[in-house]
Amino acid sequence: MTYGADRLHEEVSYVAYHFHWPRIEILDLTHAERARYVAEIARINTRMNEGQ
Question: pTM above 0.85?
Fold first, then answer.
C-alpha cells in the first residue's frame, strides 16, 4: 500500500502549524512517529475545545 502525497502533505502541514517545526524535520520522522504527533495534536485540540 502506498502513502498518498496529499495525506503526507496534510500531516506535515498539521504538525508544522502546531509545533512550528521545519518541514525537513517532520519529513525525517517515520510514518508512525508523524501519525503519533498528529493524533496527539488532535487529542490536545479536542481537550482544549471541550474546556471552552
Answer: no
